[in-house]
């Protein structure tokens, strides 16, 4: 069996969606002839823990190697869930980090990760190195290990690096340094992966002629999650709208909540027959906004739930909703929750601008779409889906579209790409 060294700062037992892609790759690569060795950090103070995800990859026989890290987010946190900061605190912290740490505040992981990675490469016959970002520090670790070992390197961009709208550059010097680091990692790579065609084009424009090819392997969902987890029991006869995950930046619940309140003011007779459930971490201001809008009897905030509990909640809901706010780069945002939603084949209320995500939803065939910040348009869309629910006409997602995003099949795509990368490297070196 081939071996791949996977470098991933974000990995279970950390919860939230950022760990899903790599964790599922690690789980299913052995089905396709590749044994993963995962290099990650020791558990620290995360916003959420999910031991079920860790148990899943351990049961698949994945070898996990953990190191210490000197990044500031870990030095002052004990190993327990920590509260989500307010948006103002998060922005101040983000600005400070942008000044002090390049490429990100995980740079303190680089020395122990490279040290441990070198020992792993000495002890195991690793065929390919695979590094996934964010954080960009993971890419630097992968590039340094490639330089030391000569093993071919595959870089996985779950988000953009240089032109990421969340990336702040306090000075032109900071941006130039990021650009040079990104270009250096490009030069070390045998090939590059990303999650959609928008990011593929963005990366191709920055890679010099003769550089590594850029391939797309999208986010996905795991059918086994849905097969093995029953829907949570329900005895009510309400239309349940459910959101799962975290809100950040322009992705906020405010427009949805205001639209829901306006719709209920227009159609008060519907109040006993609708509810909105949030599974995950909401912004600190959200409970006060719910009270202000008089939605206490409509909205339920469950807080963070394990992945299995989230799947059970998704299966019990009638309509799933998501939002991608108007912001630079919004056209290229395809959140991982979108693909988990697709796996249910349930209707999706998407407050989303034009872009790759909207195109996927149009193909899906069971989406109710509205601009993310136009409350009046959201009111009309909520009313339309309510009427469809009341008359039993809620649509079901197309199997032909959903099947493209099966995590097991996507791991097979990655396995074939790793094999092609290995063969190409062997030809180049004459071995």
TrEMBL record:
SUPFAM superfamilies in the record: UDP-Glycosyltransferase/glycogen phosphorylase
Domain Glycosyl transferase family: 231-389
Protein keywords: Transferase
InterPro entries, alphabetized: Glyco_trans_1, Glyco_trans_4-like_N
Superkingdom of origin organism: Bacteria
Any one GO MF annotation of this record: glycosyltransferase activity
Domain Glycosyltransferase subfamily 4-like N-terminal: 22-224
Pfam name, any one: Glycos_transf_1
Gene3D superfamilies the UniProt entry points to: Glycogen Phosphorylase B
PANTHER family: GLYCOSYLTRANSFERASE
Protein known as: Glycosyltransferase involved in cell wall bisynthesis
High-level lineage: Bacteria, Pseudomonadati, Rhodothermota, Rhodothermia, Rhodothermales
């Amino acid at each position: 069996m081939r071996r791949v060294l996977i470098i991933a700062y974000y990995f279970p037992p950390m919860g939230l969606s950022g760990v899903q892609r790599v964790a599922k790759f690690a789980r299913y690569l052995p089905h396709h002839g590749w044994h993963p060795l995962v290099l990650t950090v020791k558990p620290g103070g995360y916003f959420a823990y999910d031991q079920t995800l860790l148990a899943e990859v351990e049961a698949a026989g994945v070898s996990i190697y953990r190191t210490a890290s000197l990044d500031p987010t870990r030095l002052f946190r004990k190993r327990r869930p920590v509260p989500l900061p307010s948006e103002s605190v998060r922005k101040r912290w983000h600005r400070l980090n942008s000044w002090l740490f390049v490429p990100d505040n995980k740079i303190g992981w680089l020395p122990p990760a490279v040290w441990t990675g070198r020992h792993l490469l000495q002890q195991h016959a690793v065929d390919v190195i695979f590094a996934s970002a964010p954080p960009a520090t993971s890419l630097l670790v992968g590039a340094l290990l490639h330089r030391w070992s000569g093993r071919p390197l595959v870089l996985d961009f779950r988000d953009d690096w240089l032109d990421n709208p969340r990336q702040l550059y306090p000075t032109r010097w900071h941006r130039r340094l990021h650009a040079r680091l990104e270009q250096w990692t490009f030069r070390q790579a045998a090939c590059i992966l990303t999650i959609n065609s928008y990011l593929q084009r963005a990366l191709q424009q920055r890679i010099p002629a003769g550089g590594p090819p850029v391939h797309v392997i999208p986010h996905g969902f795991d059918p086994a999650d849905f097969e093995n987890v029953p829907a949570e029991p329900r005895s009510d006869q309400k239309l349940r709208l459910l959101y799962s995950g975290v809100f950040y930046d322009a992705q906020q619940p405010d427009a949805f909540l205001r639209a829901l309140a306006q719709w209920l003011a227009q159609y008060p007779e519907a109040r006993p027959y609708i509810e909105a459930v949030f599974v995950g971490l909401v912004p600190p201001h959200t409970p006060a906004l719910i009270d202000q809008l008089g939605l206490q009897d409509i909205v339920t905030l469950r807080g963070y739930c394990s992945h299995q509990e989230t799947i059970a909640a998704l299966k019990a809901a009638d309509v799933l909703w998501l939002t991608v706010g108007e912001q630079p780069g919004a056209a290229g945002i395809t959140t991982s929750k979108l693909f988990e939603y697709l796996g249910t084949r349930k209707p999706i209320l998407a407050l989303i601008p034009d872009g790759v995500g909207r195109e996927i939803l149009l193909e899906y065939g069971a989406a109710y779409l509205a601009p993310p910040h136009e409350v009046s348009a959201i009111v009309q869309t909520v009313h339309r889906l309510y009427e469809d629910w009341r008359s039993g006409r809620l649509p079901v997602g197309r199997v032909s579209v959903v099947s493209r995003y099966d995590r097991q099949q996507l791991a097979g795509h990655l396995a074939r790409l790793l094999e092609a990368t290995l063969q190409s490297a062997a030809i180049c070196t004459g071995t």
